[in-house]
């Protein structure tokens, strides 16, 4: 272990200890709470840390194992975008040199407050595998003449995939528990606490990204989608069945299949 790695490991241990102290500082036992807060403040002074530094340690970024040699297609970006919105993350495309493949590649990157990016990546990669297969099957049908389109098979497949993502978006959203949908929470906060937490998480993500150079997204050119492909994509998306495992990072058994 290098000296830098040792210092980082020590700092992680210190931050974990500060977090425990801050949690104990909310104890109903006034003496215990006061002692814990003093310990947290002493550690922060010793290591020159602020409460923001401690909170930022909860922000993480997760890269997809899937990559493309070329720029990710629009439907792939749409999928990562809707998944990120559902799970409160920031989606980015990360282009870099891949030593394994020996070329430049582009991957999906999710940034958020743990464990949101890990869950989002699990959902994204699971859905991407299903969408890729559904799109491939549709392209094959267009190419064989079983499905008609005014566009090339690949372009029709892109239009199919965009419609698929739009339908599945609503299904993912329904899987994620929202505070305002819990009667016990709604009685006390009417969902305001959830909005506050989401706002705080967004602020932490922006702070985490501060100073990093992030390219502006390209403006999407208006295109006329093939109606037949849209209908096929919508129907395929409606037949995809999901359960709660997808929204918990695979911790529960999940199902994702076409009916």
Question: How does the SSE layout of this entry go?
Answer:
Layout: H1 3-24, H2 30-46, H3 51-56, E1 59-68, H4 74-87, E2 90-98, E3 103-113, H5 116-144, H6 153-175, H7 183-189, H8 192-209, H9 227-238, E4 240-241, E5 257-258
Antiparallel strand pairs: 1-3, 2-3, 4-5
Helix pairs in contact: 1-2, 4-5, 4-6, 5-6, 6-9
Walk across the major sheet and give the strand order: 1-3-2
Q: Sheet with the most strands?
A: 3 strands, antiparallel
| Order of SSEs | HHHEHEEHHHHHEE
Total domain modules: 2
How far apart the termini lie comes to: 51 Å
Average of per-residue pLDDT values: 82
Count the DSSP helices: 9
Number of strands: 5
Radius of gyration over alpha carbons?
A: 23 Å
Give the percentage of residues in beta strands: 5-15%
Helix content: 55-70%
Query: Outline, from the CA principal axes?
Result: elongated
Structural class: alpha+beta
Query: pLDDT below 50 for ≥5 consecutive residues: which ranges?
Result: 180-190, 253-259
Essential attributes:
5 strands, elongated, disordered C terminus, two-stranded antiparallel sheet, 2 domains, alpha+beta, three-stranded antiparallel sheet, 259 residues
